[in-house]
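Is this the right way to post structure tokens for a design question? Let me know if I should format differently. Anyway, here goes:
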């Protein structure tokens, strides 16, 4: 696969959703901090800066670096990036299985055997493949087949279980669908969910998307989370269906999507990262308040300025 002639505009889209993902991650993470006043939530006042990002953004930046260099998901290059970024900043809230995998990769062990070895040889079915994948959906948005292939490749480096991979595929397709819509058009969250359902492989994640399609988009978010999960189990199955639903219910309004998603608690930073990446595909970076972007800790991406991308 050669690098596409429109690589620069693909990278612009990938950067826009990276902003959505990382602002969501950093915003959500603030609610784990002690001392966030309750009025921040009740009055929808964003927490005071600086909002530090977590593992979700670290790994998404690794993906963006690989896309920038290779124009595709080169799994060996991605494993090296993940390992390097983990070694440089290990205290970013990585889960225990991720720490084992990334530590081994950083020590030079082959990612294929490491990623398979966790959870009794089944591989991880956690939400880590889904939380970082939005830039892939943005980069390949013109071709859903390629979105599915590249998202699966990106997940497999750390999440070898089919549910870990399917969660990443579903979030990438949702992001791609959003990026394909004309800016300013009235968007149908139901159509987005239907497209994701069509492209997600059979299994528990696809069943979760069927459940999400049965929850009307004007349902109270707490009711939806009770039915679909809120990520508190840290699995793709417990995370991705609700996040897709919450994005679908708030496709045209980034901040509304963030508040609705954080209020149901669970894996708040990852939930907001997933929803933020998808919704930024629809709104563009212009849909994210500049104050929110300025509140987020500056991104660190090799070869790319973290600021000023559109
Ligand atoms: Mg995190």
């Amino acid at each position: 696969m050669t690098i596409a002639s429109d690589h620069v505009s693909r990278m612009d889209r990938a950067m826009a959703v990276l902003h959505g993902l990382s602002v969501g991650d950093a915003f959500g993470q603030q609610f784990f901090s002690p001392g966030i006043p309750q009025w921040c939530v009740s009055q929808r006042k964003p927490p005071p800066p600086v909002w530090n990002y977590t593992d979700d953004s670290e790994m998404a930046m690794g993906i963006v670096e690989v896309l920038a260099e290779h124009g595709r998901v080169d799994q060996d290059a991605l494993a090296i990036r993940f390992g390097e970024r983990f070694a440089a900043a290990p205290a970013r809230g990585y889960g225990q299985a991720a720490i084992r995998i990334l530590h081994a990769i950083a020590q030079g062990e082959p990612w294929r055997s490491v990623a398979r070895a966790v959870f009794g040889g089944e591989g991880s079915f956690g939400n880590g493949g889904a939380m970082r994948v939005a830039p892939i959906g943005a980069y390949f948005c013109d071709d859903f087949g390629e979105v599915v292939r590249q998202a699966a490749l990106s997940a497999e480096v750390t999440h070898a279980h089919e549910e870990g991979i399917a969660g990443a595929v579903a979030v990438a397709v949702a992001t791609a669908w959003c990026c394909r819509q004309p800016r300013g058009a009235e968007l149908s969250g139901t159509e987005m969910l239907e497209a994701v359902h069509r492209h997600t492989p059979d299994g528990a994640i696809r069943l979760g998307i069927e459940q999400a399609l049965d929850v009307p988009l004007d349902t109270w978010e707490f009711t939806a989370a009770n039915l679909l999960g809120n990520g508190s189990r840290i699995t793709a199955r417990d995370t991705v269906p609700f996040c897709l639903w919450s994005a679908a219910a708030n496709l045209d309004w980034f901040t509304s999507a963030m508040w609705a998603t954080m209020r149901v608690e669970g894996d708040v930073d990852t939930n907001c990262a997933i929803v933020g990446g998808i919704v930024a595909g629809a709104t563009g970076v212009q849909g994210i308040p500049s104050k929110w972007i300025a509140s987020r800790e500056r991104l660190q991406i090799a070869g790319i300025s973290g600021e000023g991308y559109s």
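Format looks fine. Someone answered above. Worth noting: The chain is about 65% helix and 0% strand. Confidence is low (pLDDT under 50) at residues 306-310.
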